[in-house]
Amino acid sequence: MQKPSIPAGTRDFSPEEMAKRNYIFDTIRKVFYRYGFKQIETPAMENLSTLMGKYGEEGDKLLFKMLNSGDFLSKVSDEELLGRNSLKLTNKISEKGLRYDLTVPFARFVVMHRNEITFPFKRFQIQPVWRADRPQKGRYREFYQCDADMVGSNSLLNEVELIQIMDEVYRSFGIRVCIKINNRKILSGIAEIIGEADKITDITVAIDKLDKIGLEKVNEELLAKEISESAIAQLQPIILLSGTNREKLATLKTILQSSETGVKGVEEIETILNKVDLLSIATPLELDLTLARGLNYYTGAIFEVKALDVQIGSITGGGRYDNLTGVFGMPDVSGVGISFGADRIFDVLNQLDLYPEDTTQQTQVLFINFGEKEENFILPILNKLRNTGIRSEIYPEAAKLKKQMGYADNNKIPFVVLAGESEIESGNLTLKNMLTGEQQSVKVDDLFSAFAKLSVL
Description:
It is a single chain. This protein is of the alpha+beta class. The protein folds into two domains: about 15-65 and about 100-350, 2-Layer Sandwich (BirA Bifunctional Protein, domain 2); about 365-455, 3-Layer(aba) Sandwich (Rossmann fold), CATH 3.40.50.800. It contains 18 helices and 16 strands. The longest helix has 20 residues, at about 15-35. It is elongated.
């Protein structure tokens, strides 16, 4: 019989792993609530018409498309089948796809629910997304995103708040990170002054890969996109610009002075940095001109977070998008948002062993089962303990004592209560500490206070 398996790029999670993941989700959720965000959810599948064309040509290729239900080939002619035009065929046999991110479905949500929403609208979403990417370390085909977006406001205070949220979340986790920031207007200005304004998308997609494939390969990709050698030469000192954030901005002001768009981008970054200087943000913030966030919908500030102590891709990203809802028939609604990659954060926390001790929320006390009479005596006590917040369980069968103790050991349950015939008669329970092996006799009414003294609560 063939051994069962799961698709490449997906994972199962054990109870212990789920406890860790819930710690991640709960930590991020608490920070989102503190900044006034409200939670929504959208369906796992969207109409392909909603998704296609929003992520650029490369993104479209990574969409998981779903076959229409029923006889999905009924509307396809023999000629079309023999023609093997996959794009044309896909349009006929697939109308839905799994969501690629949470931002485009959110834009669709805003347009559909515009009459119920009060603007500016601050929402967060914690749900899985799917990408038909090549699985590798830190890159999965199914993964969770934790998104926070603000729509209906042009204020750069929103960008400042998102920086505060990133700083607060990673300080809560104890992960050392660097927040990288750039602006698509600066990149557009650069494309303009090197004479390749119409190739802005090709330029940003290429330079966004700088830290992955290196400068030489980036230049090769730019040449392949028919960007002139002189333009590529002009681009080199700009994307490799060094110095402090303020020094980089001063240089950019000079370089981009002939580009209105570029100057606007510099001003926006300067405003954000000025506001951040008023706050006690511990996380380093770096202006990185190679940061492009290859997605087509960004129009202003863009962000990316890199872990400093682990070799992994970005663990948070996002930016300003001024025209995303416009493609759904609702123009002039500006938005800005970030997305925490929960799966990469999970990997980082595992590698650095940064989880709090009681993340697992495991059972704190197990009652040994000696038979039906003892069960009936234990059940009311068990109920009372659960009502007072102690995570408790009873072994479901009167199995051998060794087996029940083994269950407690394997599940790392720190305390066991034995209530046999003699304990019932005396009204004293035996409480065993599984870590030290120590036992003590405790009256039923004193059990709760005994746990309080033992720091079980």
